[in-house]
Write a structure and sequence with these properties.
The chain crosses the membrane at residues 6-30. This is Na+/H+ antiporter NhaA. It comes from Paenimyroides ceti. Keywords: Membrane, Transmembrane, Transmembrane helix. This protein has 52 residues and is mainly alpha-helical. It has a domain at 19-52. Helices cover 69% and strands 0% of the residues. The chain has helices at 5-31, 43-51. Helix 1 runs antiparallel to helix 2 (43-51). The longest helix has 27 residues, at 5-31. 0% of the residues are buried.
């Protein structure tokens, strides 16, 4: 089951898609000034938090 290309594609799609979605949506809201970053938080910290 874990050796097929479909399983690998789904796994990577979820991993990359989730990171891109959360980081992208957060940056969009920050740029639109809907929600600010918490004090001490920046893009680099956000990306590390979602990726790890």
């Amino acid at each position: 089951m874990f050796s097929t290309h479909i399983t690998l594609g789904v796994f990577l799609g979820l991993l990359i898609g989730k990171v891109a979605g959360v980081v992208g949506f957060t940056l969009l809201l920050v740029k639109m000034k809907v929600a600010p970053f918490p004090e001490g938080m920046n893009f680099r910290n956000l990306f590390r938090t979602r990726f790890l």
